[in-house]
Amino acid sequence: MSRPRIIRRAQAGTTEPVWVKYSLIGLALAFIFLFLVLPLAAVFTEALRKGWSAYWEALREPDAWSAIRLTLITAAIAVPMNLVFGIAAAWAIAKYEFKGKAFLTTLVDLPFSVSPVVAGLIYVLMFGAQGWFGPWLMSHDIKIVFAVPGIVLATIFVTFPFIARELIPLMQAQGNEEEQAAIVLGATGWQTFWYVTLPNIKWGLIYGVILCNARAMGEFGAVSVVSGHIRGQTNTLPLHVEILYNEYQSVAAFAVASLLALLALVTLLIKSVAEWRHERDVKAIADLPPERPIAAGNSPFAIGATH
Asked: Which residues, including other chains, have CB under 8 Å from residue 238's CB and lie 6 or more apart?
């Protein structure tokens, strides 16, 4: 084998022949086309099979608008709550050592291990008419299951690991040195978070929020159990698609499903842009010349400094 070829293989980090590389690339592209691109194209093709008029008619239906509205409301409640929880859990796990830390980490991962249907059944067991708190809720005319609160609770349960799981390894890799330096220079806890921690985790936070929002809008299993499938009241977009398909309204079902497909594409686009911005910022920081140490009196965190 010639020396230039040996050098090229060493730079590539592999000793396999070139045909192996192109075979693996072709296999990956075929898999993506067969299981991702083709089904996505089928959704839009079926949605537009009877033309744009039938497509818009399916989306203008009152039940469809109700499902869209409920989906947006659920995501608008679940995502901010998981944002607060995810930051708090990641900060506690990554920045502190305490008894029960491994158990807390396991609890964060619990929704990944539990079927969404089981998660929905848990809330029925707790808040249903025959559940633990059911009689008390009925006596006070409070509806959890088969109502919007149950849908929100089930969605929160299945989505809360996403933000925390994005932030925990990131915070652990960054360590505590910058926070400790800020505190030594006079920063308060909130100043340390806003000016040190948050800028360092912003891209991981964006990734987590994007994934959490996509799962919240597309959740089916847990929401299906606690919703009661009341048309125009407790059906989210995935549940509305199921009802339309079961009623043999395939064009309407695919039209509504296309909204979820568009959500997936927008999520992918935003994630790609965020990753590109993150890589650009990392490269820009790496190219900066080393800075001189900051004197305590000149620090933005010096005692008495205003922000």
From this structure: 218, 219, 220, 223, 224, 260
Please, are residues 185 and 177 in contact by the beta-carbon 8 Å criterion? no
86 close to 286: Cβ distance less than 8 angstroms: no
Tens-binned pLDDT, residue by residue, of the chain (307 aa)? 555 555 555 555 566 677 888 888 999 999 989 988 898 888 889 888 888 888 898 888 999 999 999 999 999 999 999 999 999 999 888 888 888 888 888 888 888 888 899 989 999 999 988 888 888 888 888 888 889 999 999 999 999 899 998 899 888 888 888 888 888 888 887 888 888 888 888 888 988 898 899 899 989 989 999 998 888 888 999 999 999 989 888 889 999 999 888 888 888 888 788 777 767 766 666 665 655 555 444 455 554 444 4
